[in-house]
Structure formats: C-alpha cells, structure tokens
Amino acid sequence: MKTVLTIAGSDSGGGAGVQADLKTFAALGVHGVSVITSLTAQNTRAVEGVFDITPRFIKAQLDALHNDFDIKAAKTGMLSNKDIITTVARNIGDYPLVVDPVMVAESGGRLLAEDAISTLKEMLITKSKLVTPNIPEAEVLSGTKISSIDDMKKACEIISQLGTSVVVKGGHMNATDILYHEGRFYEFKDKKFDFSTHGSGCTFASAITAELAKGKDLINAVKSAKEFITSAMKLSYTPGKGLRVVNPVGRLLRNSEKCTVILELQKAVDMLLEIKGFHMLVPEVGTNIAYAVSNPEGIEDIAAVEGRIVKSGVKVKAVGQVTMGASKHVAKIVLTANKYDGRIRSAINLRYSREILEASRNIGFTVSDFSRREEPEGKSTMEWGTAKAIEKCGAVPDVIYDLGAVGKEPMIRLLGENPAVVIKKVEKILKAMEGG
Ligand code: PXL
Question: Which domain range does residue 394 map to?
C-alpha cells in the first residue's frame, strides 16, 4: 500500500475535510495519514466554530509522519491562517503536492483568513504540482471574473504562473473541469447535478492525490478522479438536516454488493433446479429469478440468469450464467415493487394455472393481478402491471398474476425480500399442490 498524506481540517459532521479525504484514500486502496490543521465544530448546516491547531503541533504531526512513512503524495485542504500555511510550507517533504485552495465551506463558513490568500499563493501553491480551485476560488487566485470556459482557461494560465498545473472545477457552472498542464488544456466533461454536495472538493483533490501516488500521470489522475467524484456525488446522501454529503465509498460498496447478490442468486438457482416437481411451474417461455442490490436504479442493478431457466420434459436447466442486467421482464417487476417497498428485492415468474393460484391462496399468500387489456399504450407492461397490482392490493403482494393476451402467455410471479424467501414460496406452493 502506498502512503498518502492529507493536511487538512476536521469536519465534525463527517462529510468534508480530513474525514472525506481518508474515506477517499481507503476507497482507492492507499494508506491515508493525516495532519490536522483545524478542528471545526460543524454539521451539514453550518460551521459553528473553528479551533486552529498551533503551528508547533502541526509541525509535530508532520515530523512524526516523516520519521516513519515513505509518503508518495500529499494534498492540502483547509489551512485556516498565515501561520499554518507557513508552517506547512516549511516542513513539507519532497513529494508531489496537490493544493486544494479551500476558502469557504459549502454551507458558507470561512475556512481561510482573508489576509492569508497571498501567503497561500506565494508559499504553498508555488510548491505544488497541481492546484484545484473551484470557480469562486479561481476568481480570487487569478483576480479575474469567470463566466465561461474561456474565462476558466484564462484563469488557469494566470494561476499557472505560480509554477503549477491548474484544474479549475466547473461544478458551479456547467460541470466541465479545465486542466492546464505543461502549456496545454484538457477538458473533462460530466453530468451536471441539480444539487450541490458537501465534501466534493476534498474528495476530488484526494482522489487525484491517491492516483498520483499509485503512479498515474497528472492527466490520467484527474480523469480518474473526475469519474470517482461523479459516482461519489451520484451516491451522495443526506445524513443530517442540511446539505447532501458525498459518498466516497458508495461505488465500492455497490460493487461489493453486486458480487454478493450474484453469488447468492447463483446458489439459489442451483437450489431451484434441484427442487422436485419444479418443472411443473416453468412456463413455455421459460422462467427467470431476479435479485436486486439495495435501492436499485435500473435493470443493470439487478442480477438474473442469462437466457432464462428452461425446461425440456421434466428436466430444467439454466441457459447461461447469473449476471447483472440479464433480465428485462422479471427485473422490471423487482424494480417497480422495490419502489413501493424497499425490502422487496427478488422475484420469479411461474407458469399460470388455476391450481397454482388456488394453492397460493390456501397457503395464505396475498394475491393480486392486472389485466393486459387495460394497459395504456407506450408503457412497459411489467412496470405498469406490477404497479397496478400493488396499488389494487395496497401493498406488495406475494403473488401477482395476469391472464395474458393474444400471443402473451398468462403468468404468475412470486415476490420476496431475497431469492431464498422466493424459493421458500415456490416450495410451499409445490407442497400445497401435492397435498391438494
Ligand atoms: O470543502 C471544503 C472543506 C474543507 N475542509 C473542511 C471543511 C470543508 C467544507 O466544509 O469543513 C474542514
């Protein structure tokens, strides 16, 4: 593991500052060490207090780290005042430095004394490999007004005269970032979010620093960091009563959850194929069983069997592998049901028969239905039908069926929290049918 250093303030609310930096480092697989410059008494609504650490103790932290670690890259965030900047500049080591010229918190609190800006420029930015201002910060550092991409480029050139590469972040404008590096401009475009998030600047600079430490060149480090911050913003959340906070570990958790979902579903499919009499429940078009990650956003967040599960005689087999996005039909049922009840993440479709429905009712399953004849044009049948059946029932039922239409096989679907629960329902139905 490469060691990466953040020199920044603590955000007691956990969204920005050192807290965001260390989450980002962990998510990107580097060892994070920290020098804390200031404590803020802060939440998602406001900075309620600032307590600056003494320059002496900031030096003590730097010395302790230099005495032990081989630091590969460092970033600075909140530096609060002139003395802190001077201390950091005098005691920093000889590794690539990314300066995030933090001035004001997203909630509005001042994080850098007005009279410290020239010190930041002259003592620290001059030592940096990269400086990462947002538009208001770039206006202060360059002494220009920015309202276009050309203005951003002009500001880059002016700031770069301090002897550094510059990336001006366009989040306050059109979400295009402009990097100026060795005399050339690079544009990084992305989706513009219609909300702002607390901690995004810290996370972006930390991601660049981690990528530099891992050996990427500056252009590719910025490119990776842009992708990282975009997903951290997409997965942002509201832990308090104020601003949204970025989620640097969101993508990591999502990916690990996808692996768990695939493995669990694979196991469930193996079990399903072993159930005696299961072939009686498989429709002509085949069946599929789907399992979603928590809070799925699309069918790519839902695992199923590629090519479905099909029968020939009494033999039932899975055509392909369990993968994300392998089903449209059953996945849309799960997606829709999950919007009504976040606990529901799995479903299977079964052959329609009155016997199966009767068995379901006898067990005490809740049963609801929809009619394809009432379906409005231009809608996805599975989304519309699932919603219709749920609303009719007042909750997500165990069973949703429809009687089909011309060229459309009638169908039964079982829903549940996970594949194990759904398979239990399959087994109960088979048992009840045996008894009846
Ligand atoms: O996002 C800039 C920032 C940096 N450091 C600390 C902060 C903030 C924003 O609130 O609190 C400690």
Answer: 253-433
